[in-house]
Design goal:
The protein is an alpha/beta fold and about 375 residues long. It folds into two domains: about 5-125, NAD(P)-binding Rossmann-like Domain (Rossmann fold), CATH 3.40.50; about 130-315 and about 350-365, Dihydrodipicolinate Reductase, domain 2. Helix content is about 30%, strand content about 25%. It is built from ten helices and 17 strands. The chain has helices at about 15-25, 40-50, 60-65, 80-90, 105-115, 130-140, 185, 190-200, 315-335, 345-365, and strands at about 5-10, 30-35, 55, 70-75, 95, 120-125, 150-155, 205-210, 215-220, 225-230, 235-240, 245-250, 260-270, 270-275, 285-290, 295-300, 365-370. A nine-stranded mixed sheet has the order 16-15-14-13-7-12-11-8-17. Strands 3-2-1-4-5-6 form a six-stranded parallel sheet, with helices on both faces. A two-stranded antiparallel ribbon has the order 9-10. A hairpin with a 4-residue loop joins strand 11 (about 235-240) and strand 12. It starts with 5 loop residues before the first strand and ends in a 6-residue tail after the last strand. Pfam families: GFO_IDH_MocA (PF01408), GFO_IDH_MocA_C3 (PF22725).
């Protein structure tokens, strides 16, 4: 068991790090953020000052190689996730990494196997898995409240880039203007795919679906120029599960509505649940349920045990949900037992599902799951 407090080294100090990761860690008295790293010296200095972290470095390896740091939290851009993660695991650190660890699920499996070989805990930034409403719904499903799951609908809407003048990191294959690159389904669909697997509870067997590029001309963040982007900014997929269950997944970052825009509905033989993770009227989440004996959906109270101490649905969702995520990870590490939810194995399953969705779009056909390892 790691001695308390857990000492956290964070690699990446951008917007998501300062909105969720650092505040989440600092909320837990068992944890201490002891060092920050970022190649952007200005971003690094601002974060250090805001959160009172004295130690900083522009070279992440200084944190990875420090024997006194227990956990490396990877909050860099996607391109650096795998490199930093593998270096941290090789150095014997527990790792929290933002999604995706890698765009190829086979590489995520490799990271999971390395962690297992060293007895290390891992966790993906599946933020919405740790929303109190989602956690309570999962418990209800496990306890048979919905009966046998028949159908699940998962939505992620995000209107941040509906306006093409809003800068977006350039994506797409500039050498092939007709090649539509995965974007929304990986960046925004991943959280609901994670919940889909968790709640359905049986093996995924096949998928089919399609992607679209609704707003192809956009301002590139790095250049400020309007450029053609060959990316998926909207998609829909259907999934078949063992035992006959069906699921649909829809994600987009050009759909009107409040952030984060998560809604997951599950319908079973005994009842149905609807979780909405949308900031509306100052509340960041709701849970509604119906049964075959009372078919009207009614709001359900979320027990306080699913919240961090003093937490409520009136808090900003990045703070509330990520507080639960890091609290869960800290407990798993400090307890030293086998429990490790939302880990790299789950991340590999989600990434393999995304890879299967993409394959279905490319082939214009159903794709069997799991994918072959060839």
């Amino acid at each position: 068991m790691t001695a308390q407090p857990l000492r956290i080294g964070m690699v990446g100090t951008g917007r998501w790090a300062v909105r969720s990761h650092i505040p989440g860690w600092q909320r837990d008295p068992r944890c201490q953020v002891v060092a920050l790293s970022d190649v952007d010296a200005d971003s690094l200095a601002r974060a250090a000052q805001e959160f009172g972290v004295e130690r900083t470095s522009t070279d992440y390896r200084e944190l990875v190689e420090d024997p006194d740091i227990d956990v490396i939290d990877v909050v860099t851009g996607d391109a650096a996730h795998f490199e930093v993660t593998m270096a941290a695991l090789e150095a014997g650190k527990h790792v929290l990494c933002e999604k995706p660890v890698n765009h190829d699920y086979r590489e995520v499996v490799r990271a999971a196997e390395l962690a297992d070989s060293k007895g290390l805990k891992t966790k993906l930034g599946f933020t919405f898995r740790y929303a109190p409403a989602v956690m309570y719904a999962a418990e209800l499903i496990r306890d048979g409240w919905v009966g046998r799951p028949y159908m699940l609908n998962a939505y992620e809407q995000n209107s941040q880039w509906l306006d093409p003048q809003t800068p977006l990191r350039q994506q797409g294959d500039a050498g092939d203007p007709d090649f539509l690159q995965v974007a929304s389904i990986e960046g925004y669909g991943a959280p609901v795919i994670d919940i889909m697997h968790w709640w359905m509870g049986t093996a995924l067997e096949s998928v089919v679906g399609t992607m679209r590029n609704f707003v192809p001309e956009r301002v590139v963040r790095d250049t400020g120029a309007m450029t053609r982007m060959n990316i998926d900014d909207g998609d829909m997929f259907i999934a078949e599960f063992a035992g006959g269950g069906l699921a649909s997944v829809q994600s987009s970052f050009v759909t009107v509505g409040n952030f984060p825009g998560i809604e997951v509905r599950i319908y079973g033989s005994e009842g149905a649940l609807i979780v909405r993770l949308v900031e509306e009227e100052g509340i960041c989440q709701t849970l509604k349920g119906a049964t075959k004996g009372s078919v009207e959906f009614k709001e359900m109270e979320i027990p306080q045990r699913f919240f961090p101490e003093g937490g409520s649905s009136l808090e900003p969702w990045p703070f509330l949900f990520y507080s639960n995520l890091v609290r869960n990870f800290a407990t798993e590490i400090l307890d030293g037992g086998p429990e490790n939810q939302g880990d790299f194995r789950q991340g590999a399953l989600v990434q393999e599902t995304i890879n299967a969705f993409e394959a279905s779009f490319r082939r214009r056909a159903w794709v069997d799951f799991p994918l072959t390892q060839a």
